[in-house]
Amino acid sequence: MNLERLTGQEILARVPDLVKIYRAAFGGPPWHEDEHAADAFAERLTTDARRPGFTAVLADDNGDPVGFGTAWHTPSPFPTGRAYDLVRAELGEAVETRLVGALEVDELAVSPHARGRGLGASVLDLLCGGADPCWLLTSPQAADAIRFYERLGWQRLTGPGADVVVFSRSPANYHGTW
């Protein structure tokens, strides 16, 4: 496996690779993302890659792209739209002190055939580094993803009945490579 950190400009040249991974990673349960959702991801990625501080990690296996992660620092004030409103509904004003300024992991995807080899953890590790506080969210229906983040030591910020599951990782609870 090869991991490569990419800037927003560099990732724009790789959008077709990321869309292919996205389709494979999120086409099945619990996501059931269709072609329309994959196209919407490509449009979001094109916009997101221009955000200040955008960073990405692309993983390949012998030249075949098999995983990626994207992130940026959450601006102040805490944004609205997308899933931000769900996060604010669950965490209230704590979003301003806990999440603003932290590295926000927007996407983490690994092709199904490449799972089970530590690739997701490696992508996440390189994406987040060891110094920055980070946060991410997932669906309450994504039991495998929830277990994955818990196994890596991420702290769950939302309760079991939440409409969105928010995790954080601070330098204090970071223990090096997962």
Automatic annotation (TrEMBL):
Record-linked Gene3D superfamilies: 3.40.630.30
SUPFAM superfamilies membership: Acyl-CoA N-acyltransferases (Nat)
Protein's UniProt keywords contain Acyltransferase: yes
Keyword Ligase among UniProt keywords: no
Single Gene Ontology MF annotation: acyltransferase activity, transferring groups other than amino-acyl groups
Keywords tagged on the record: Acyltransferase, Transferase
Domain N-acetyltransferase: start-end pairs: 1-172
Recorded superkingdom: Bacteria
InterPro entries tied to this protein: Acyl_CoA_acyltransferase (IPR016181), Bact_Acetyltransf (IPR050832), GNAT_dom (IPR000182)
PANTHER family: AMINOALKYLPHOSPHONATE N-ACETYLTRANSFERASE-RELATED (PTHR43877:SF2), AMINOALKYLPHOSPHONATE N-ACETYLTRANSFERASE-RELATED-RELATED (PTHR43877)
Name by which UniProt lists this protein: GNAT superfamily N-acetyltransferase
